[in-house]
């Protein structure tokens, strides 16, 4: 089997690690929590980083009017289907397609990943800004507007006495490795021509 086909086969399999490893993690540090609170985001679930973290985040967020982190969101049905579909498509392309199809698959995967990141941003924005006006505690910005509590999309951000961290996890790296594998498969295929 040619190198390009082997690499495309890898591109098909690596994203499936998203069903085992978390895609993203959000961690909240504060003086009152000696062990930071954290939430792992999987392709089909939210999970505590430490026991009861999501429950504690929900209790804390209730005071400032944030919604509870739901048990499930519609994306938990959509994302797994997309990853399985893209993996099956990559397998078909690896066995039947030529190197140009590898690039087409990669472009489609990049577009879908960008759509997923944008959806995550919108979810975070809504979660951090759509606050209950009857909340026990209200905080305002220097200009008098209501303060939002949106965690960062990527990186670290101070929110009152909390430091929020938001970073990709192992599942995201497997997804990235699959996309890189498809790109290298395209280069090998093009070179072979």
The sequence of SSEs as H and E is HEEEHHHEEH
Q: How would you sum up the global shape?
A: elongated
Count up the domains: 1
Helix content: 40-55%
In DSSP terms (H or I, runs of 4 or more residues), the helix count works out at 5
* Count of individual beta strands: 5
Radius of gyration: 20 Å
Strand arrangement in the largest pleated sheet: 3-2-1-5-4
State the end-to-end distance.
15 Å
Share of residues in strands: 15-25%
Q: On the 0-100 scale, what is the average pLDDT?
A: 93
- Unreliably modeled segments: none
Class derived from helix and strand content: alpha+beta
The largest β sheet comes out as: 5 strands, antiparallel
Summarize the structure.
With 193 residues, the chain is α+β, with helices and mostly antiparallel strands. The chain is 51% helix and 16% strand.
Name the features:
single chain, 193 residues, alpha+beta, five-stranded antiparallel β-sheet, elongated
Would you mind describing this structure in some detail?
Strand 1 and strand 2 form a beta hairpin. It is elongated, with a radius of gyration of 20 Å. It has one domain. A 5-stranded antiparallel beta sheet has the order 3-2-1-5-4. The protein has 193 residues and is an alpha+beta fold.
Task: Please give the structural blueprint.
Blueprint: H1 3-13, E1 24-30, E2 33-41, E3 46-48, H2 53-63, H3 75-96, H4 99-129, E4 155-159, E5 162-168, H5 170-192
Antiparallel strand pairs: 1-2, 1-5, 2-3, 4-5
Helix pairs in contact: 1-3, 1-5, 3-4, 4-5
């Amino acid at each position: 089997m040619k190198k390009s086909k082997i690499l495309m086969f890898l591109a098909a399999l690596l994203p499936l690690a998203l069903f085992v490893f978390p895609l993203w993690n959000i961690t909240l540090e504060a003086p009152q929590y000696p062990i930071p609170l954290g939430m792992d985001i999987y392709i089909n679930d939210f999970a505590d980083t430490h026991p009861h973290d999501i429950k504690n985040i929900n209790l804390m967020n209730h005071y400032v009017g944030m919604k509870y982190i739901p048990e499930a969101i519609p994306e938990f049905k959509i994302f797994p289907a997309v990853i399985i579909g893209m993996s099956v498509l990559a397998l078909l392309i690896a066995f039947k397609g030529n190197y140009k199809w590898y690039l087409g698959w990669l472009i489609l995967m990049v577009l879908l990943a960008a759509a997923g990141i944008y959806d995550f941003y919108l979810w975070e924005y809504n979660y951090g800004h759509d606050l209950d006006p009857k909340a026990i505690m209200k905080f305002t910005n220097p200009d008098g507007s209501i303060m939002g509590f949106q965690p960062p999309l990527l990186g670290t951000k101070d929110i009152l006495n909390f430091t929020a961290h938001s970073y990709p996890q192992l599942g995201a790296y497997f997804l990235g490795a699959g996309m890189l594998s498809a790109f290298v498969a395209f280069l090998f295929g093009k070179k072979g021509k």
